[in-house]
Amino acid sequence: MYFQLIILTVVAYLIGSIPTGVIVAKILGAPDPRTVGSGNIGATNVGRAAGKAAGIITLIGDILKGLLITLLALYIFANSPIEVSLVALAAFLGHLFPVFLKFKGGKGVATALGVFLAIAPLQAIVAVVIFAILVALFRYVSVGSMTSAVSLPILLSFFVTSRPYVPLAAIISILVILKHSDNIKRIIQGTENKVGRK
């Protein structure tokens, strides 16, 4: 089992490292998202660089990076929380610190969503609803992203089956907040991009 865990963790990290947004922008002949807007490789900034369709494709790709490898871990390790959490965290860290982009990656929100759609789909959907409500109210994607990430450990703690994954959710939520440090500064300064603003 330890050999399987090591192999799957490495594979998860490599899959997480795939820069979906950069690849999509390149295929479409659009500017590299790292040179546009916030410089982030996630769906929101790819949408700015290459259009809404590219942003949606990037979002789906980044979700799948977390979803598929976590589902595989759940199958192989029979829902053993420690092993599954390690594999899921490796995929998430791959997106944040991708080996293919010199360890300069995205904020990991979509990949985290994929992870928790596999582990606790109901709670993940509630987090998405929280995200949507906050973005609708404040028009800041970053506010919705951070709040929904912080909500996940709380949501998971309400259910016995998902409670063992609270530490994973807590680690991911902390990392999501840290990766949004620039967004937090821009919100305070009043310069953060709002949804719908050109």
Describe this entry's structure for a reader.
This protein has 198 residues and is mainly alpha-helical. The termini are far apart. The model has no long low-confidence stretch (mean pLDDT 95).
Produce a short descriptive summary.
The chain has 198 residues and is mostly helical. Helix content is 72%, strand content 0%. Helix 1 (2-17) runs antiparallel to helix 4 (52-76), helix 2 (20-27) packs parallel to helix 3 (43-50) and helix 4 runs parallel beside helix 6.
Total DSSP E strands: 0
Q: Which regions contain 5 or more consecutive residues with pLDDT less than 50?
A: none
Structural class: mainly alpha
Q: What percentage of the residues does DSSP assign to strands (E)?
A: under 5%
What is the overall shape? Answer: globular
Which radius of gyration do the C-alpha atoms yield? 16 Å
- By DSSP (H or I, 4+ residues per run), the number of helices equals 10
Output the helix-strand order. Answer: HHHHHHHHHH
Name the helicity range. over 70%
Indicate the mean pLDDT: 95
Q: What distance lies between the first and last C-alpha atoms, to the nearest angstrom?
A: 51 Å
